[in-house]
Amino acid sequence: MNFENIIERIITLNHAWKVARDDFGAKNAITQALRLQKSSWQATLLRDFPQQAFLRRDVENSTDEEVLFSVRLVNPATINGVVRRDAEHLPERIAQQLFHPQELVNLLKLESL
Q: Distance (Å, rounded) from C-alpha 87 to C-alpha 109?
């Protein structure tokens, strides 16, 4: 699967997760499965394309209860006719489950690009 296909899949899963959350609630099994699938694809994007994607703390959308990372793209990508500079948000708590601590530090180190 190529870079753009993975981003498209992440975006699609994110939209589906939001619909499921609104329709069925955050604790519903389908809602949780969609969120985890989206996060898994975000991890794949970051691991398979380390020169094209990185994590940045999103200070505008993070709260005291939840720190969010933005999966940033080094170069914008056009997905379904829309220019994207990111591949959605990844909560810090989920990132800590998906990545080894040093791997997470390395992904965040690239944020100065």
A: 18
Packing angle of the helix pair 3-24, 29-48 (nearest 10 deg): 160
Question: How far apart, in whole angstroms, are the C-alpha atoms of residue 81 and residue 65?
Answer: 34
First to last CA, the chain: 25
CA–CA distance, 84 with 104 (Å, rounded to integer): 23
Q: What amino acid occupies position 46?
A: L
The CA distance from 99 to 95, in Å, is 6
The rounded distance, in Å, linking the Cα atoms of 11 and 37 is 11
pTM of the model: 0.92
Three-class DSSP category at 73:
strand
Strand order in the sheet with 68-79: 53-57, 68-79, 82-91
Nearest residue to 21 (alpha-carbon basis) of 38, 9, 35, 7: 35
Over residues 44-90, the pLDDT tens digits come to: 999 999 999 999 999 898 888 999 999 999 999 999 999 999 999 99
